[in-house]
Amino acid sequence: MPTWANPVMKLMTRHSTIVLATAFVLVLAVADVVVAAKKSPKVGFLRDVAPVLLRRCSGCHGGRVSRGGYRLHVFSELMRAGESGEASVVAGKPGASELFRRLLEKDPEIRMPRQDDALSEAEIDAIRRWIAGGAVFDGKDPDKPLRSQLPPRQHPMSPAAYPVPVPVFAMAFSPDGRQLAVSGYHEVTVWNPTDGRLIRRLGRRPQRIHSLDWTDDGGALLVGGGTPGEYGELALVDSPSGRVRHLYGTFDDVVLGAAISKDGKRVAAGSAGHETRAWPVDEIKPAWSSRVHSDWVTGVVFSGDGRFVVSASRDQTVKVHDAATGGLFTTYNGHRKQLGKFTGRFAVFAVGFDETAGRVLSVGAGKAIRIWDPVLAKSENGTAADMEGRFFKAGHTRFIAHGFGKTTFGLDARGGYAWAGGADGLVREFSVKSLKTVRSYEGLTDWVYTVAASRKGDLVAAAGYSGEVVVWSRTDGRVVARFLSAPGLKPAGR
Ligand code: HEC
Questions:
Q1: Cα of 54 to ligand 1 centre, how many Å?
Q2: CA-CA distances (angstroms) from residue 20 to 88, 119, 137, 162?
Q3: Quick one: which of 22, 301, 417, 436 has the fewest CB in 10 Å?
Q4: More confident residue, 286 or 381
Q5: pLDDT recorded at residue 59
Q6: Atom of ligand 1 at shortest distance to CA of 86?
Q7: Nearest Cα residue to 77 out of 57, 101, 103
């Protein structure tokens, strides 16, 4: 289980529904593999075999652990025998291949995966046919980790009707404010934000969607997501057709943040695999890729002038990249502050940019939203020993004391205001200028993962763990719509 699941894992103890939701996810995930196997009779190693081995075996036979002296996360190592000295794969001969024989053993101590459920028949069959067909490697580099070479996955359809609600991780209002895109299970659902009616479903997307952003003409959505610990993907998806315009690429872990630049010319994304990458909007060849973070990249935003790509991370830093080259302009260390009022060391979970102030807003654990200028952040920084002192004295960072007791996961900023929500289940609006709380939005109680404001600034929406979406009018704070973002599932007791 990837550490990514932390906030959700914590909930498992309080909520039985997550157990159901997880079971549901597992059932459908198995269906994914069956669909893939049925669709094409020819087996491809990277498409059909490697994902199964990485998911079910690499925990004990991977980069960190090599039980039995055997690793299979890199192709050349997969082909090498382990401690037994038995050939792991003999091309053309499944019966002589230790890797295959181990899948069929009866004794759960010897059968692989050890002390776990056996692979499905379809998975075993795919591995058998791959070895029988000559054990061909269809990747780029047999000596590089397989996870970085996986092709885009074919995603299954979402269920016609959801058996249980799924958590909402991302949301975005269309530029005209008439549609609200919401992350679903293997899909993006699009709703009328004023009456809560489902407008359309954009299906065959990654299992989890963690980031959504509309193009300025409202004709497409940038969709970032994947499967935690396994796979990430960024795509530009046409709306209403659901056709994929560009699949920018795959990541070795789930994409947690993505954004389109204000001028619409570039896109950028960050993944739980510590990577940040950017593309010209119409090209699938990345302009650059950067691995300067040492933990999940949790959020990505462009500065208003398009000069910077700003990435937030659980490593307690926010990095400012040159948007054109990816070069590191500076590291914002304000969330590791040891001096002044809001001291502590905090993971950063969300980042935004307010154009009226020309400032980055960043937040996560801790008691304050930090507001700062990416250029000044460089002057505050340095390698000298007095960095902390200079940082404190320069005082360019401004703070909004949000008043939440727990971690903040969702943030949006525009027009001089910011909206945030998190594990308290509270949603609040703040003025970037006065740094004061302007309004509280009542109606959600469970963990809030995402908060969005319409561009006109008339509507605010929030959602999270429970799968329920609440939309408020900003003029009077009233609830305009409230719906469960699970097509076909009626909220209990209503
Ligand atoms: C929970 C840990 C665990 C998982 C998961 C696991 N294995 Fe193993 N595996 C072991 C251990 C321990 C050994 C060494 C003891 C033995 O040989 O049975 C081993 C040995 C092996 C060997 C023999 C290596 C040699 O030559 O000595 C192969 C091949 C193998 N595993 C393949 C797999 C495959 C394929 C999967 C996934 C389908 C898998 N394992 C999943 C723990 C695991």
A1: 13
A2: 37, 22, 38, 12
A3: 436
A4: 286
A5: 92
A6: 26
A7: 57
Task: Give the rounded distance of the alpha carbon of 304 from its chain centre.
Answer: 23
Q: What is the mean pLDDT of residues 340-363?
A: 94
Please tell me if the CB atom of residue 82 comes closer than 6 angstroms to any atom of ligand 1. yes
Cα–Cα distance, 269 to 278 (Å, whole number): 6
Q: Which of 72, 106, 112 to mutate to test the pocket of ligand 1 (most atoms within 8 A of CB)?
A: 112
In whole angstroms, give the CA distance from residue 281 to residue 458: 29
* Under 8 Å between Cβ of 48 and 139: no
Residue 137: name the closest of 88, 86, 91, 85 by CA.
Answer: 91
* 11 pLDDT higher than 50: no
At residue 479, what are phi and psi to the nearest 5 degrees? -75, 125
Angle at 310 between CA 309 and CA 316, to 5 degrees: 150
Ligand 1 nearest atom to the CA of residue 68, by list position: 14
- Tell me, using a 6 A CB cutoff, whether residue 203 lines ligand 1: no
Quote the pLDDT of residue 419: 98
CB-side neighbour CA atoms (13 Å) of 25:
17
Distance from Cα 144 to the centre of ligand 1, integer Å: 21
Distances in whole angstroms, Cα of residue 274 to Cα of each of 188, 233, 311, 367, 411: 25, 14, 10, 25, 21
**Nearest-angstrom CA–CA distance, 439 and 412:** 14
Specify the higher pLDDT residue, 181 or 489. Answer: 181
Average pLDDT over all residues of the chain: 90
pLDDT score at 492: 61
Instruction: Name the residue among 125, 157, 147 with its Cα closest to residue 42.
Output: 125
Q: Which of 260, 236, 324, 259 is nearest to 287 (CA)?
A: 324
Compute the C-alpha angle 333/337/342, nearest 5°.
130
> With a 6 A CB cut-off, is 114 part of the ligand 1 pocket?
yes
From the CA atom positions of the chain, what is the Rg in Å?
A: 23
Tokens describing residue 326: 């990816």
Cβ contact 247:282 at 8 Å: no
Nearest CA to ligand 1 atom 30: 99
* pLDDT, average across residues 465-478: 96
CA distances from 37 to 5, 32, 55 (A): 28, 9, 16
Residue 18's identity, in one-letter code, is: I
pLDDT band at 454 (very low <50, low <70, confident <90, very high): very high
In this structure, how many other beta carbons lie within 10 angstroms of the beta carbon of residue 112? 25
Q: Is 88 in the pocket of ligand 1 (CB under 6 A)?
A: yes
CA of 381 to the centre of ligand 1 (A): 48
